[in-house]
Amino acid sequence: MDRTDDIVIDPVTSWLADPDGQAVCAALVAQGHQALFVGGCVRNALLGLPDSDVDIATDALPEQTMQVAVNAGFKAVPTGIDHGTITVVANDKPYEITTFRRDVATDGRRAVVAFSKDIRDDALRRDFTMNALYATPEGRVVDPLAGLPDLQARRIRFIEDADARIREDYLRTLRFFRFFAWYAADQQGFDPVAVDVIARNLDGLGTLSAERIGQEMRKLLAAPDPSFALAGMRNTGVLNTILPGADDKQIGLIVHFEQALGLGTDWQTRLVALGGEDVPQKLRLSRVEAKSQDILRSALEQMTAPTEVAYRHGQQLGVSTLLLRSAIAEMPPTPQEIAQLEQAAQATFPVSAADLMPEVEGPALGARLKALEQKWIASGFVLKKSELLNLP
């Protein structure tokens, strides 16, 4: 192993300080096997970011991992045994443990793997150098492919041959831009080798399922500032390939407005701004997600006031409407407008059907209620019940 003894992860990091995870690792090590934390949890710990998924890699074969776990009093579930993954449950907490692997064959979506005793084989089948970092149970970093300098420079680089990595799984094209949005130093720009290879492999994106594309786009759009990554997707042809008709020109303004007002990120807002054809189908949105998209698009088309959207559909969709309209007008929203949306979302229409009956009944009753509600909304939700009832 290429251990970097001078790089040690803070021992108070949650997954290192977790006694159950340590017990699982200790059970493997006691039987002469390696047990190494790998991937996102190591990457994020070294960058000082919140914890990511905790995965453990080992040179033990899946059957050996299961036997070790059972002998140690843990539950072992063969969740992905054909690909080397065993879920070991300790104190009701699951830990995914995967045997070192190497790719035997790939088709751009899935791989046939063979188990290995060599950590370098396992590292070589990963996507980016910053994801091929491991850590011992003591927190000492293991860097078989010298990816640590890339991580420290926040540089997104494919492992060895970028063309081969992409052809192994075309989703890595989208992962490249998603990782750039979350982890890269924008001022460095994109790795020129990577973007050249990505632009030459656009056809492979057509082999991906809408579910996989949608998952990646949700994660990318949820980044603090995905505007640079989206511009790269546009320039390489990726954006129009997965979302024909999409346009990222308003994303930067929306990000600026969010940050200026101290708002959290919302991928749904950004997706509406991005636009495109058949978005719910292209990204396989859920019914709830698709409904939110419809509400926002309709509000923009019909020029519905953000306060009315907040009143009818909740504060978040009201905020989204405000941000989208502000980006179109290139006029920043104000804290006062945000406060109005919070009030609108909490407002309750003071008039009921019983207040109008029996003087008004039948279809006229519904029409009268709707008319009064619109006047109440237009008043900024301030008209009282008596004032509304006295309106002509």
- Give the N-to-C terminal Cα separation: 83 Å
* Biggest sheet overview: 8 strands, mixed
Uncertain residue segments:
none
Q: Outline, from the CA principal axes? A: elongated
Q: If you average the pLDDT, what whole number results?
A: 94
Number of strand segments: 10
Characterise this structure:
The radius of gyration is 27 Å and the shape is elongated. With 392 residues, the protein is α+β, with helices and mostly antiparallel strands. Helix content is 49%, strand content 12%. The protein has 21 helices and ten strands. The strands form two sheets. The protein has an eight-stranded mixed sheet.
Which structural traits does this protein have?
single chain; 392 residues; alpha+beta; 8-stranded mixed sheet; two-stranded antiparallel ribbon; 21 helices; 10 strands; 49% helix; elongated
Briefly, what is this?
With 392 residues, the protein is of the alpha+beta class.
Question: Helices, strands, pairings?
Answer:
Blueprint: E1 3-8, H1 19-30, E2 36-38, H2 40-47, E3 55-58, H3 62-71, E4 75-80, E5 85-90, E6 93-99, E7 101-106, E8 111-115, H4 119-124, E9 134-135, E10 140-142, H5 148-152, H6 162-168, H7 171-183, H8 192-199, H9 210-221, H10 227-236, H11 238-242, H12 251-261, H13 267-274, H14 279-282, H15 287-301, H16 306-313, H17 315-329, H18 335-346, H19 353-356, H20 363-378, H21 385-389
Parallel strand pairs: 3-6
Antiparallel strand pairs: 1-10, 2-3, 2-9, 4-5, 5-6, 7-8, 9-10
